[in-house]
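Appendix C: a fully annotated inverse folding record. The material below is reproduced so that readers can follow the format used throughout the book. The structure is listed first as tokens, followed by the designed sequence.
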């Protein structure tokens, strides 16, 4: 049984708003410093913050649109809109942040960039940006830790199985921002010490590669959610055990779950009922079991139960092809 984190939607909105405000302020500071000094690393960091700010706008869109109720056109609701807009956020990190940083780095290395100078302004901007980004990062970490504990998972396991990409996106982009600031600081410092612009260009390329990696990780997460990932294993096991323990059910033949949005799980199951049940008994049992599953598991919002014979060869082959040995154990229970 899973526990829904208290006010998770509200905290996600707070996390995104905080990150968005911080990134906008930092982008302006970095841009001014980059224009004054001509530093490729500073301009790359400015592009990084602009990309992050645009990302927060997309995440806010995701939070708002995904909460719309189900209607005739979308009977299962709009939960997956959160994954769509979050995927666009990952694309924006790559397109507007990574590509610009790589371009600045290559231009600097090959001597096609703007003339550069070192200035105390660059260090001040980077230091202030680090403090502001750290504030946003702490909020993202706090939310992720709280929600992982609420679901009795480790920090890494929660990030891997998370069904709300919003806090993960903010956490990853803020982590990349802090690392990028350190890289920019090193590039500008080495440029000042050696007098060579190569270090500034190398810093820009490292920032670009870092953003590309973050974009890939977030894109992969949202791709899996959009395609239709199964519910977390605890819910799957809990639903299976609950159905198996029902006196009217002889065997759980097939069990399919899919995330329809954040904290929204669709359950479709085929079960072999006791043959002595009447049609009326089957109807009442299906309604009762669906209600029990929705009450027992906060994330389960829709349940479909189909009576089937577990001996049907075509059905058995389909289930075995999908689940292998696990399905074999399901089919053998009760025999």
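Designed amino acids, in order:
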């Amino acid at each position: 049984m899973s526990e829904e984190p208290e006010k998770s939607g509200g905290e996600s909105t707070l996390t995104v708003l905080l990150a968005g405000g911080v990134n906008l302020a930092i982008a302006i500071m970095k841009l001014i410093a980059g224009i004054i000094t001509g530093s490729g690393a500073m301009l790359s960091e400015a592009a990084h913050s602009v990309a992050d700010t645009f990302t927060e706008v997309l995440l806010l869109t995701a939070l708002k649109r995904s909460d719309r109720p189900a209607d005739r056109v979308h009977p299962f609701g709009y939960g997956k809109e959160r994954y769509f807009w979050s995927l666009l956020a990952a694309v924006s990190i790559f397109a507007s942040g990574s590509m610009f940083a790589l371009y600045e780095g290559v231009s600097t290395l090959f001597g096609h960039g703007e003339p550069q100078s070192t200035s105390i302004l660059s260090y001040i901007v980077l230091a202030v940006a680090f403090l502001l980004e750290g504030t946003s990062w702490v909020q993202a970490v706090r939310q992720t830790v709280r929600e992982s504990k609420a679901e009795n998972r480790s920090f890494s396991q929660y990030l891997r199985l998370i069904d709300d990409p919003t806090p993960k996106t903010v956490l990853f982009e803020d982590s990349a921002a802090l690392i990028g600031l350190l890289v920019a600081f090193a590039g500008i410092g080495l440029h000042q010490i050696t007098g060579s612009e190569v270090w500034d260009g190398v810093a820009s390329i490292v920032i670009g590669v870092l953003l590309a990696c973050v974009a890939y990780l977030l894109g992969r997460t949202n791709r899996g959610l959009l395609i239709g990932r199964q519910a977390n294993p605890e819910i799957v096991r809990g639903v299976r055990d609950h159905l198996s323990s029902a006196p009217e059910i002889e065997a759980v033949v097939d069990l399919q779950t899919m995330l329809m949005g954040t904290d929204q799980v669709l359950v479709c199951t085929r079960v072999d009922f006791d043959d002595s049940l009447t049609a009326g008994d089957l109807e009442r049992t299906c309604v009762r079991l669906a209600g029990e599953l929705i009450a027992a598991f906060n994330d389960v919002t829709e349940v479909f139960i189909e009576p089937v014979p577990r001996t049907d060869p075509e059905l058995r082959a389909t289930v075995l092809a999908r689940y292998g040995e696990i399905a074999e154990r399901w089919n053998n229970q009760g025999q």
